[in-house]
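Note to self: the last two entries modelled the partners one at a time, which told us nothing about the interface. This time every component goes in together.
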Amino acid sequence: MSGISIDAKRAEQFYSGEEFTAMMERAKSAKEKLLGRMGEGNDFLGWLDLPVDYDKEEFAAIKEAASKIRKDSDVLVVIGIGGSYLGARAAIEFLRHSFYNNDSIAKNKYKAPQIYFVGNHISGTYLTELMDLLEGKDWSINVISKSGTTTECAIAFRIFREALEKKYGKEGAADRIYATTDRKKGALKTLSDAQGYKTFVVPDDVGGRFSVLTAVGLLPIAASGADIDALMEGARIAREDAFNKSAEECGPLCYAALRNIFMEKGKSVEILANYEPSMHYISEWWKQLYGESEGKGGKGIFPASVDLTTDLHSMGQFIQDGTRLMFETVIAIDKPRAEVIIPSDDADLDGLNYLAGKTMDYVNKNAMEGTILAHTEGGVPNILIHMPDTSEKSLGELFYFFEFACGVSGYMLGVNPFNQPGVEKYKANMFKLLGKPGC
Amino acid sequence: MSGISIDAKRAEQFYSGEEFTAMMERAKSAKEKLLGRMGEGNDFLGWLDLPVDYDKEEFAAIKEAASKIRKDSDVLVVIGIGGSYLGARAAIEFLRHSFYNNDSIAKNKYKAPQIYFVGNHISGTYLTELMDLLEGKDWSINVISKSGTTTECAIAFRIFREALEKKYGKEGAADRIYATTDRKKGALKTLSDAQGYKTFVVPDDVGGRFSVLTAVGLLPIAASGADIDALMEGARIAREDAFNKSAEECGPLCYAALRNIFMEKGKSVEILANYEPSMHYISEWWKQLYGESEGKGGKGIFPASVDLTTDLHSMGQFIQDGTRLMFETVIAIDKPRAEVIIPSDDADLDGLNYLAGKTMDYVNKNAMEGTILAHTEGGVPNILIHMPDTSEKSLGELFYFFEFACGVSGYMLGVNPFNQPGVEKYKANMFKLLGKPGC
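The predicted structure of the combined assembly is written out below.
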């Protein structure tokens, strides 16, 4: 049974029992549509069964490649954007040390390479400065692009490939380039086959934002030394629950219903909140998942996020007392990775001795409770999602929980949650301005 | 004359000339109220004159302390939250190398300490892991808190002070602790005087979110080796413009007017966008500035931010085609810090040869143009703010530009832009739950 659970008791005051029942009926229908593969975008439902139906041979090859990278590289440069970036980054920042990339922590603590992401923007400054960092180090590349022609990634890959070939020669570099791309076709697949790069597959039926449990996410995550078997196992458990539990006991269904209730009551912004800095990129991943799935046809809830208690001292005032346009979803980690006892101090000038001997997490949890109370009193409905710990298994559950809820929620909203037509518009304009042949 | 300029040509299609004229009249009145110190919160207007009227003696002492820290410390731990955190972090991340804290870049390139921020949340995990990083290093603390009793900072300061005293002894530690706090009173001032810590002043008439150009921001910024004279000079120039230019030529006034026009047309979310990853924390600083200043009494524009082109592949779909509730403000850096020429490739499988020989920034700027066009076509009004370069001077201008516009905009909205009553609510609840004596 999944350890992820949902607590709606600070949401209930904002709707009636009848409203909830009616919305749960819609959620149930949406789930049937999803599982029956009867909705729009049903050729992109490969993610639904990934945790039980994945390519075991490729999975083994991912672990083997990760193991080689961990042996022969001080740094892994991961080139990808959007869904080919956020899932891996979210997982690594959540599962590893807060300063993973600093001062040999990756190497000493995890026997793993430092991992840097590039190709997710067009900043020459960042690229130049990442090159500085590679000076004198052994490094490898994981380039992730279905087509191999996404501008941001293609530019970065040209430049880092050139640098790698300069350092190791063409053959040496080929041994250090891992391409996650289309199974059969496209620029990157063609290049990889010609040069002899090891390749991994971006499945045809899994969209970018649902791809964290494919090679797209798994190779960088495994390179960091994290346990991808446990990650998949967590997702499997969450899938089991999502498929089989009764509607009332099914967390993702409940989450989908609640957010649609609030949206229909005029809450146009959802704020995802955490109380651990390591969760920052989980929120970024979630923003793509929901923003890109639902934000179409003039519809959707605007996804925003805060890191707390940090942002209580920046966005807190607005959430408490500004325009009443949002509801809040909090992810609580029941058991944090490390604990600190607050020391006593004879002088007690700061007045903290009433907390001496308590753990920081005890204070953190009370800050969370106090904040939820304050925000709901301020008219901001609250959905609380419990996550048992910071393990790979729990993260796998969380990923699947949100993916499943997203599919359901998108169908409830009446959109195709699996396309992203709007993303092409800036590209078309850009190509025209750049004078790309044929545009 | 300030190098910061505002370009409204992609906003104009969304309002009439009459609407703009009328709103500019309101902006002018708000400016008079601000400069005449006739509005609510007028005891917190110290920031208005900071760039010309600051304590020169303290400024020299800040540079001296920074110079000492740079000589005797591998790491500076900065303890602060909200306004005592975001300004310094925004400046350091913008002005320094993208990987400032990694692999001795701070030391080799800037002869400066690595700088880590803590005390801005209650995560025992982060705190424990930051301690890991300090192992074997020489370090100092800059603790920033007007009262010294803010829970997040006080906990962190207890723990890091204890560790510093364990390493260097009580006296040795006292020589490495710099307290930025109230001039006369409060827990931290009392402790500092008793222990002999060097102290700097959080002025009484400057609120946290307007404090980046006081010791609050300046000491950490100077410790990173950045030029705080140039930062102040930039702010001075922006102040000159803001005070003296005619309304039509005054950027901050125009910005304040535009955002109020869009708000009154039902745009309840403002998205601040950048095209350089180094600007991420400038957006976070801006979110506090506007969110905390305007988000009260059920009013205000919800401040959000995106890093582009990264987030075009996550939030781009929503901005293009989701619920029409936002306008976008883009900050463009005319001249980036570093440049990269896109190389040619014989095979040209990725089809990028049409860009060979061009700089990445050329592509980045066209991506920006194409995106602005796409978003305005999608019904998202665009305000473009030009910043000449990534220098300290330009950043000083930008800080002052946004602060001035914020004061004006808040008065236009009819709120007191200089208080933050809502921030107390979570604290009161938390103290009660924690059983704090007297609560």
